[in-house]
Amino acid sequence: MTAPEQEPEWRRLDRRTVVVTALRAAEVAVLAGVPVGIGLGGSFSPGVAVAVVVPAAVVLVVAAALVDRVRWRKTRYHVSVDRFELRKGVVVSTRRSLNRDRIRTVDITAPVLLRLFGLAHVKVGTGERTDSNESSLSLNPISRADAEWLRRELLEHAASEEAEPGHDGTLSVWRPTWVKYAPMSFVTPTLGVAAFGVVLQVAEWFGLQNSVITWALDLLRGLPLVAALLVLVALGMVIGAVGAMALFVEMWWQYRLEREPGGTLRVRRGLLTTRSISVEERRLRGVELVEPLGARLLGAARVDAVATGLAQGQQEKQADHNTLQPAAPREHSDRIAAAVLREPVSPTEAVRLRAHPRAALGRRVRWALAAVAVVLLPLVVLGLTVTSVLLHIAWVSAVVLVPITVALAFEAYRNLGHGITGGYLVIRRGSVRRGTVALQRSGVIGWTVRQSFFQRRRGLLTVTATTAAGSQAYSAYDLGEDEGLVFTEEAVPGLLTPFLERVD
Fold first, then answer.
1. Which of 88, 220, 84 shows the shortest CA–CA distance to 150?
2. Inter-CA distances, 300 with 238, 294, 333, Å
3. Gap between the Cα atoms of 435 and 428, Å rounded
4. How many C-beta atoms surround the C-beta of residue 7 within 10 A?
């Protein structure tokens, strides 16, 4: 008589979570207490500020530690043969579970504080697209060793029989030369403006904002107005470029893309906060080669996964959750795309894309001019009714904006293209952000054909491939009517056939 199979033991979070929470609370107390203390010291005396801020900080730290101690005692998880279960709750006890066959991602994140203690935050998800947290379970924190064990244990079901043999190992690693692409983005001016704002905010805390502004004006007093503005812009761009490179290094330091035995693609990266993201190859439906304008000018591109189980909502806001290869030379990115898809040549470069009708260019030029008119019309109206200065601003803006927007319209038209190669359909679009997606034809589950009133006048239409992966819809804009319908039929034969009428 065989003994009954023993129930897997319930595991706890790491007990050091209490110390980590206390340190985080202390950090919050310092960041909030310093400006509050400075403000109280200016209104009252330094002794009063210390007497108010320090006890409040101590209470905050102790309370946070006690609450987290209770959370640690009430949180359990275990992995059974077919389910991953989590039990937690302080006031209201909850017990949730995920079927292991539905688990698609096990992401490991370790900020600096967790790394110092050898801990990690693990998020287990099914990849379903929902605004609630029903499709994921989070363990924060557990030991790094337990996190790695959990990742292997939960993803092992993806492997074995479905994975193709060979091609395992490292596909791409970090190269310092990639940092030069970081400043060529909209992050650079954004960080430059933010830096000036931070300086003024800190100066206000110490009551020195007027002094800082006066000091800056004194430095620029001898320069003409235009020269002074150019100096400020140049300074902001330099600060923004340094910040953009620092941000890139923090995100992608020690980057490594690996194919693990069993058919799992794993991305590891991060300097201060390390991240580990796993993608099952059986969930991969293609790749997208993304070329922002700045990176494209330097011949660079990044590679994003088009896969089921990578939610595009909140996870996309966590900085490139679906990126397999950061901005790198286009040739390198093409090689990585081919290696990821197990193809000799990437579909994004194996096909010569078909151009779209000339009427598509006219539509983009008209959109560009309409956008400029929307911006300038209020200035013209206010200039005619309030002050003529705004009229001068309007015509100067028109001289600058019209050539730029028209050039972007021509670029957007040149970037339009579509084609079919092997088992993939390829669609390219965009000017400021050019994207070339290679989507498995077998992954297309439907087509949407749209034709606006103005498109009908020009003999154009837009076809959208619907899929369960990536952004779920990939559109080829402004194709010729006949060409667009033929493209859908060639890409996925039979799917749109009942709705087509053939004309000899």
1. 84
2. 21, 9, 8
3. 6
4. 8
Q: What are phi and psi of 430, to 5 degrees?
A: 105, 150
Q: Mean pLDDT, 10 residues at a time, over the chain (504 residues)? A: 57 91 90 75 70 84 92 89 85 84 84 91 75 73 91 68 60 94 90 88 79 83 82 91 93 92 87 87 91 93 86 47 91 95 91 92 94 92 86 89 94 95 93 94 91 92 91 92 89 78 65
**Beta-ladder partners of 312:** none
Q: How far apart are CA 216 and CA 224, in angstroms?
A: 14
Q: How far apart are the first and last CA of the chain?
A: 76
SS (H, E, C) 240-297: HHHHHHHHHHHHHCCCEEEEECCCEEEEEECCCCEEEEEEEHHHEEEEEEEEEHHHHH
Nearest residue to 108 via CA among 120, 125, 126, 119: 120
288: exposed, middle or buried (Cβ count in 10 Å: 0-12, 13-18, 19+) = buried
Radius of gyration of the chain (CA): 28
Tokens 């905010």 sit at which residue?
201
Report d(CA 230, CA 55) in Å as an integer: 49
Q: How far is CA 485 from CA 19, 49, 340, 409, 482, in A?
A: 62, 73, 30, 25, 5
CA–CA dist 191, 183 (Å, integer):
10
User: Secondary structure of 355-401 in the HEC alphabet?
Assistant: CCCCHHHHHHHHHHHHHHHHHHHHHHHHHHHCCCHHHHHHHHHHHHH
- Beta-bridge mates of residue 86: 77, 96
Per-residue CA distances from 159 to 6, 79, 259 (Å)? 26, 18, 11
Cα 156 to Cα 263: distance, rounded to the nearest angstrom: 9
Contact 401, 337 (CB under 8 A): no
Residue 85, classified by CB atoms within 10 Å of its CB into exposed (0-12), middle (13-18) or buried (19+), is: middle
Torsion of Cα atoms, 374 then 376 then 377 then 381, to 10°: 160
Sign of the CA dihedral running 406, 409, 411, 414: negative
Q: Are 463 and 448 in contact (CB under 8 A)?
A: yes
Residue 49 phi/psi, 5-degree rounding, is: -60, -45
Residue with tokens 């389910």: 83
Query: How high is the pLDDT of residue 160?
Result: 47
CA–CA distance, 18 with 71 (Å, rounded to integer): 9
Read off the amino acid at residue 266.
Answer: R
The pLDDT assigned to 133 comes to 56
Residue pair 328/296 in contact by the 8 Å Cβ criterion: no
Number of other residues whose CB lies within 10 A of the CB of residue 309: 22
**Other C-beta atoms within 10 Å of 40: how many?**
18
